[in-house]
Specification:
Blueprint lengths: L1 E5 L3 H12 L3 E5 L2 H10 L1 E5 L4 E3 L3 E3 L10 E4 L6 H6 L2 H5 L3 E4 L6 H9 L4 E14 L2 E14 L7 H13 L3 E3 L3 H22 L3 H6 L1 H20 L8 H10 L8 H7 L10 H11 L4 H10 L10
Parallel strand pairs: 1-2, 1-6, 2-5, 3-9, 6-7, 7-8, 9-10
Antiparallel strand pairs: 3-4, 8-9
């Protein structure tokens, strides 16, 4: 299968490397030191689920250099969605489908506005991974899986083909018959985890062990679930306790990628997480004071570390 990985960080780098090692024709889109290291030394996974070194790998700085593809794994940061999607017009015109595994719940619509909604398959990536050094992806924890599906729940030929490629690559993948619910289940957990770990500048264990921040975490989950229910996304009241159980089971040292970005002085995905909850809740007539506070408190760092 011809696969393009648009965004070769933790998510795209990990799954793209697995797909390449399994014999698929994978081209990574990567720039800067990371792209240069991949071109020179290949892509290495430093992974709890099994390390891997793919060398050589195909890597280009711009997707417009690629002639054709069957599928595009779209894993760029949310703030780069439109810019990245524009570079994929040629591939989608040629028949490629975009499988989006971004954070948040708005990526599929945003990409569809540019390439056409029929070219997009929404998905969920469940993994804790990031670039450890140029050309190196570090994955931690006992999970790394993909879930994706058509809006109508049908197991279409393109979804089946990509699922077969994932299965052959040896990592868990699932075709969803209700991708809206799957997206929102992850969104509720991630928006709350990201918001609270970024607020405390530390791991989830610190959030859970402090009564005041533990209460904020629960409030963030409750607000997110209420928003999803109001928008008829497939969420249900019981998802509050399901999400809290999931958050309670996370390793104490875990931090969301937004916390890592904040500590590294990088731009934040704030507008697509707590900011999105606040925006969508307002449209649905739901009050979300916790997410509104998180959005306001982190706003000075939205574009990266401000000048002193």
């Amino acid at each position: 299968m011809k696969i393009v990985v648009m965004g070769s960080g933790g998510v795209g780098g990990y799954f793209g490397a697995r797909l390449a090692a399994a014999g698929n024709d994978v081209t990574f889109v990567a720039r800067g030191a990371h792209g240069e290291a991949m071109a020179k030394n290949g892509l290495r996974l430093d992974a709890e689920l099994g390390s891997l070194h793919v060398n050589p790998v195909k890597v280009v700085p711009d997707a417009r250099e690629i002639a054709a593809a069957d599928a595009v794994m779209f894993t760029v940061k949310m703030r780069d969605t439109e810019t990245a999607a524009e570079t994929l017009r040629g591939l989608t015109t040629g028949g490629a489908s975009i499988f989006t595994f971004q954070n948040g719940v708005e990526g599929g619509v945003r990409i569809g506005r540019i390439v056409g909604p029929g070219k997009v398959v929404e998905g969920v990536a469940r993994i804790s991974a990031q670039i450890a050094a140029p050309g190196v992806i570090r994955q931690v924890g006992g999970f790394a899986s993909l879930e994706f599906g058509e809006a109508d729940g049908a197991a279409s030929p393109r979804v089946k083909a990509f699922h077969d490629a994932c299965a052959a690559a040896g990592f868990p993948a699932r075709i969803s018959d209700n991708i809206s619910r799957a997206l929102w289940v992850k969104f509720v957990m991630l928006a709350s985890l990201a918001g609270l770990t970024a607020l405390v500048r530390g791991p989830i264990g610190r959030v859970r062990s402090t009564p005041e921040t533990a209460a904020l975490l629960r409030a963030a989950v409750e607000e997110s679930v209420a928003t999803g229910i109001a928008l008829k996304t497939g969420l249900e009241p019981e998802d509050v306790e399901r999400t809290m159980k999931q958050l309670d089971g996370l390793p104490a040292p875990m931090m969301a990628s937004m916390c890592h970005d904040l500590l590294g002085g990088k731009p934040l995905e704030l507008d697509g997480l707590s900011g999105a909850v606040a925006r969508l809740a307002k449209a649905a007539g739901v009050g979300v004071p916790t997410h509104a506070f998180i959005t306001a408190a982190l706003a000075p760092f939205r574009d990266g570390q401000p000048a002193a």
